[in-house]
Amino acid sequence: MTNQECIFCKIVNGEIESKEVYEDDNFIGILDANPKTPGHTLIIPKKHFRNILDMPTTLGNELLEATKKISLKLIKEKKAEGTNILINNEPSAGQLVFHMHAHIIPRKKNDKITF
Ligand code: 5GP
Ligand code: ZN
């Protein structure tokens, strides 16, 4: 299930370079090209879904597991104190890339990041 026009499908297929920091059977984790904070990671399903509303619920456990693993790794390696986990669904919610992805944003007290 690949969408030929989709930038994240091209990243999954290795046609566009990215800094991959995580991989399991159904997801990859890459560093965001325009990070909100150092270590800002995107978890992307290998198959093309428009957003989480289009993704099978059966992938939910694996997504949650990846989210937790990457959050804990960022807290350890980036000395973050916490993370925001964010999924934008549809343009009105700020979705710009129409291939499902979850943002994991490392946070520190007083980092002055706002949403
Ligand atoms: P959205 O608003 O759709 O949730 O966010 C899309 C995210 O994808 C943005 O944070 C943007 O910086 C990131 N992004 C867009 N194109 C690329 C790319 O080609 N490579 C990487 N690593 N990140 C990208
Ligand atoms: Zn895609």
Structure, described:
21% of the residues lie in helices and 22% in strands. The protein is an alpha+beta fold and 115 residues long. The chain has a single domain (3-107), classed as HIT-like (HIT family, subunit A). The chain has a 5-stranded antiparallel sheet, with helices on one face. The longest helix has 18 residues, at 60-77. It is globular. The model has no long low-confidence stretch (mean pLDDT 95). Bound molecules: guanosine-5'-monophosphate and zinc ion. Guanosine-5'-monophosphate (5GP) is lined by residues 7, 16, 18, 30-34, 42, 88, 94-97.
List keywords for this structure.
115 residues, binds zinc ion, globular, 5 strands, alpha+beta, binds guanosine-5'-monophosphate, 5-stranded antiparallel sheet
Annotate the secondary structure layout.
Elements (H helix, E strand, L loop, with lengths): L6 H6 L7 E4 L3 E5 L9 E5 L14 H18 L4 E5 L15 E6 L8
Antiparallel strand pairs: 1-2, 2-3, 3-5, 4-5
Zinc ion binds next to α1.
> Radius of gyration over alpha carbons?
14 Å
Instruction: Specify the biggest β-sheet.
Output: 5 strands, antiparallel
- Provide the CATH superfamily: HIT-like
Order of helices and strands: HEEEHEE
Q: What is the number of domains?
A: 1
Count of extended strands: 5
Question: Can you give the mean pLDDT?
Answer: 95
**How many angstroms does the end-to-end distance come to?**
32 Å
Taking pLDDT < 50 over at least 5 consecutive residues as the criterion, the unreliable ranges are none
Q: What is the CATH architecture descriptor? A: 2-Layer Sandwich
Classification by helices and strands: alpha+beta
Oligomeric state of the chains?
single chain
- Count of separate DSSP helical elements: 2
The first-level CATH class is given as Alpha Beta
In the CATH scheme, what's the topology name? HIT family, subunit A
Strand content: 15-25%
Strands of the biggest beta sheet: in what spatial order? Answer: 1-2-3-5-4
Bound molecules: guanosine-5'-monophosphate, zinc ion
